[in-house]
């Protein structure tokens, strides 16, 4: 079983070493060292970063990127606010919640342009809709990750309230999630695209019962602090150009072999089973392609930010709306990235 908690300690130690792979454009002493934090050890979930590292796109911008894996979006935002990282990949729900507590985190690139979460049940279960989960327990990988906010959003849409009409139980992912299903601790699981693929690949067949309309709710994206944007704009622009190049490179099937090699370097455990790695990459990559009518890679739709906030308020996850929701995100760096690719 691939399990992000079991891998965390090993990955945190190994990723900084892996982050220097690729043909260096500068001597190491000439590169600015920065840190990127991700909410799980999976290189595939952050594939543009590892591709940009492997292809030397960050080095071309004068950056040496260290990647560290921590546990969930809440921890990512804590690392950013504590000055322990320059960039991270949190979900929109946790970011809005953090801003209500005074954390000036800003999303700058929409990585998971299509929802990369869903509420899954065992393949053979009788559940056909989320409404049938009234009174049931829904498992989550983390206590405060993006999957929790997404599931609460879905359940609120079905007229149910957390703690009254259903319960969340933090069970972890991979093996622990499988055990929770088998032991009857949970009837459903709020899973990312990667989590679902892992469960199915490893013998726990699940199916998604999330209503189709929630597919528009984008998932985790790249974030930094507002202070970094204001006082270190050159860094944010350099990051954005390199990241966008890595994203575009990975979407080109002609580069598939190189991409999978970079991802295996970033997380050797994911690369051990080549067939599984390729299938998981395809699933995650598909969620990063904007829906028709969008403005291109990395672009945020303002109306969905509003829907995210409305759902968080309705579900009681935040006490009320932000004074200025537009300060939580920007499309200016996605535009800079797109110009670099084109």
Q: What is the oligomer described by this structure? A: single chain
Report the CATH C-level class of the largest domain.
Alpha Beta
What is the helix content?
A: 40-55%
Number of helices: 15
Order of helices and strands: HEHHEHEHEEEHEHEHEEHHHHHHH
Q: Into how many domains do the coordinates divide?
A: 2
Structural category is alpha/beta
Q: Any guess at the CATH architecture of the largest domain?
A: 3-Layer(aba) Sandwich
Q: What is the number of strand segments?
A: 10
Spatial strand sequence of the major β-sheet: 7-6-8-5-9
Task: State Rg.
Answer: 19 Å
Major sheet description: 5 strands, mixed
Structural features:
single chain; 342 residues; alpha/beta; D-Maltodextrin-Binding Protein, domain 2; five-stranded mixed beta sheet; three-stranded parallel beta sheet; 15 helices; 10 strands; 44% helix; globular; disordered N terminus
């Amino acid at each position: 079983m691939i399990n992000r908690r079991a891998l965390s300690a090993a990955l945190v130690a190994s990723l900084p070493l892996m982050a220097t792979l690729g043909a260096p454009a500068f001597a190491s002493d000439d590169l600015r060292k920065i840190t990127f934090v991700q909410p799980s050890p999976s290189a595939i979930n952050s594939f543009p970063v590892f591709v940009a590292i492997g292809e030397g796109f960050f080095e071309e911008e004068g950056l040496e990127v260290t990647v560290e894996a921590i546990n969930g979006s809440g921890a990512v935002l804590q690392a950013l606010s504590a000055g322990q990282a320059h960039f991270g990949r949190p979900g929109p729900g946790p970011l809005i919640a953090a801003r209500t507590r005074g954390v000036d985190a800003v999303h700058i690139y929409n990585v998971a342009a299509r929802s990369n979460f869903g509420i899954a049940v065992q393949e053979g279960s009788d559940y056909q809709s989320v409404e049938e989960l009234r009174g049931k327990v829904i498992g989550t990988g983390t206590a405060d990750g993006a999957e929790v906010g997404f599931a609460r959003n879905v359940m609120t849409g079905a007229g149910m309230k957390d703690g009254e009409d259903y319960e969340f139980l933090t069970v972890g992912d991979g093996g622990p999630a499988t055990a929770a299903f088998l032991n009857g601790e949970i009837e459903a699981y709020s899973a990312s695209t990667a989590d679902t693929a892992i469960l199915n690949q490893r013998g726990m067949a699940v199916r998604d019962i999330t209503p189709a309309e929630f597919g528009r709710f984008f998932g985790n994206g790249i974030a930094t602090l507002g202070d970094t944007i204001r006082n270190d704009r050159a860094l944010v622009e350099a990051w954005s150009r390199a990241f966008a190049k890595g994203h575009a490179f990975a979407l080109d099937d002609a580069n598939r072999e190189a991409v999978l090699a970079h991802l295996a370097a970033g997380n050797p455990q994911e690369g051990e089973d080549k067939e599984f790695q390729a299938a998981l990459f395809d699933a995650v990559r598909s969620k990063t392609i904007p829906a028709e009518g969008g403005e291109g890679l990395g672009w945020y739709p303002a109306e969905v930010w509003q829907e995210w906030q409305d759902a968080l308020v309705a579900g009681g996850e935040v006490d009320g709306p932000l004074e200025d929701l537009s300060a939580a995100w920007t499309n200016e760096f996605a535009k800079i990235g797109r110009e670099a690719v084109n």
